# Entry
Amino acid sequence: MKKWLKSAVLWLVVVSMLASVNTMFVFAEEAQVQQTEEESTLAGDIERIINNLSLFSRYNEVSKESLYQTAFETIFEEDPVLYEKVLKAMLSSIDEHSVYYNEEEASQFLLDLNEEVTGIGVNVFMNEGNIIVSQPIPGSPAEKAGIKAGDIIVGADNYDLRGMEFEAALDKIRGIEGTMVKIKIIRSGISEPISFVIEREKVTQNPVDYELIETEDKKIAKIIIYSFTETVAERFKEALDMADKDGTSNIIIDLRDNGGGYLDQAVAIADMFLPKDAVITTEDHRFALLNKVYTASGTDKKYNVVILVNEMSASASEVLTAALLDNEVAKVVGQKTFGKGTVQTMSYTPDGGMMKYTSAYYLTPNGENINKVGITPTVTVENSFKPVDMTEYEMFSLSKTYRVGDKGEEVKLAKRMLRLLGIFVGEVNEVYDENLKIAVHSYQKADGLFPYGVLDITTQMNLYDTIKTAKVENDDQLQAAIDIF
# Structure
């Protein structure tokens, strides 16, 4: 009996083992099918291998964490360049506003947040892989060349910037003072990219501009904030003091084409208008414990405020706008804002580099998250367009063809016309330079003419006819703001 039981038990064990093996084959087959159905990647393969090793390795000290750590330490020791690549890949995977800067890039990034930079002089941001100009710095080489808010910078010298990492793209645009860079842009309404050459300079950015507007019955102080640099609140306070001296409490804050900057500067400016304990904004973190509410210290001064915004007003501009709008101390005129409602934190890494990563949303005083939504103005106004005053643009004599190296009043006339159309970028003078050749080529291609960059008689005739039907922009948004007071 015992012998039979022993044989029966042995047989059951064999059957059980065969069943287990059969089950394993089934599982393996299912896993194989699943793996072939999924997109196979090296990263996925590594993850599956590490999962298996951490589960089935006999040693207690083997875990997913230890395997990853050992792999990284060995790889980085053999190839230190991969350290930077890994950090850049990790940060960029969070969102388009998160990035890793090596030590040199970090220094340049911090310089760019100051008011003196070396380059062409543009404030830019990245959206969907594109480098977009929020505005050229007043008086900069970029502004003199004719770069406009909304232009997309797609090339610098022979580099295609589309899809390039943000800081890497900026490195191609920036450079040593006195050097030249060939910039290629895409502009709304123009089918072909525009290329031109700009000399890099040291550019000092005054983040605030003040203008007193006087009408028959009122005085209005218009304060433009170009960018929220580290001293903008101090500069804004100086402009507000000028309004006080000019005897007006009517304030227009122009945030059009302002892509943002330091959050604390927007909070400081909002504090100049709000009553004590009014909510300015809230940092909404993943963990509520980290949330931070910014409130006003309070002011006794009362102002009538209108804020001007458009689709390029973003980030810190939206913080200030929402703070004054939700607390009912300002009306907002213009177009819906960009909708960049995230906060970035900067922290240094052991190698001397720096991480800038999205750490929170910011909420409006009413608790709204405007990220990818924007702020709708109190009064929505789009600027209109009017016909060109043709008394300022005479007809060409149609007696001469112009090319690079030629000079004359008609060359200057062509530059003025092409600049009005948004095609010519450069100095408007009597010299037929490379920038004019590029502009003429672009115009000819868009107009269906033979594109060879020579201002021939046919091109002159067509250009004059184009100007006759062109429109120039009216600042209806500013007028609407003035009418509110």
